[in-house]
Amino acid sequence: MRTCCIYAVRMSSAPPAATATTRQPPAADRVYDHVKQGVLERHYEGGTLLTEGELAEAVGVSRTPVREALLRLQVEGLIKLYPKKGALVLPVSAQEIADVVETRQLVEEHAARKAVPASPQLIARLEELLAQQKEQAAAGDLAGAAVTDRCFHAEIVRSAGNEILSRLYDQLRDRQLRMGVAVMHAHPDRITKTLTEHEQILDALRSGDAEAVVGIVHGHVEWFSHLARGEVR
């Protein structure tokens, strides 16, 4: 099951309107989805203070499900609750970037080496995702491009056939998406470099050069660590 791509559809399109035959999700889930999507797509940027009343009005629910949703989001590390004040959207910290980069390199470089020789199915899927990301970038859909970027890398990780590593990588999904959207907004020229490096990864996979794939993946992911040190290349 391509959970990454299912998530992409959910992130890039509004939920369908409820009808007589369509049952809406529970109120707490609707609030959770509303706030989480807002944080990941930077509609609610780091440092924003959200109040229960504002969120209840925005989603059309009472305050009780809002509290439930905010507690879940606090556990996930996206917000911090302040009694009688509201929920503060936590900014992405330098340490979080460094931790995610380190974990990504460990998982992705191992998976890249195991992905060679790449199956025709993997090559075809990566070609499809790269074409989709190019279309999103051309249309200025930075949030969609960030989601597709995660899908591209997740396909390589899954191709290694290690379910434990795949689940570990999926746990990084939200953090990676949030960072990816933030980076693309702060450094819009980065998307061109990302697309070029994805092309290079594909070429190395097609040629069956495992060390080349690992080297390109390493450099591709390493760029984010420069953000943690206040450096950009």
Describe it for me?
By secondary structure, this protein is mainly alpha-helical. The chain is built from eleven helices and three strands. Strands 1-3-2 form a three-stranded antiparallel β-sheet. Helix 5 packs across helix 7 and helix 6 runs antiparallel to helix 10. The longest helix has 21 residues.
Give the quaternary arrangement of the chains: single chain
Nearest-integer average pLDDT: 85
* Biggest β-sheet: strands ordered side by side in the sheet: 1-3-2
Please state roughly what percent of the residues sit in beta strands, choosing from under 5%, 5-15%, 15-25%, 25-35%, 35-45% or over 45%: under 5%
- Unreliable stretches: 6-20
Overall strand count: 3
Instruction: Give the structural class.
Output: mainly alpha
Helix content: 55-70%
Task: Estimate the global geometry from the Cα principal axes.
Answer: elongated
Largest sheet: 3 strands, antiparallel
Distance between the termini: 36 Å
Annotation field: number of helices? 11
N to C succession of SSEs: HHEHHEEHHHHHHH
Q: What's the alpha carbon Rg, rounded to whole Å?
A: 19 Å
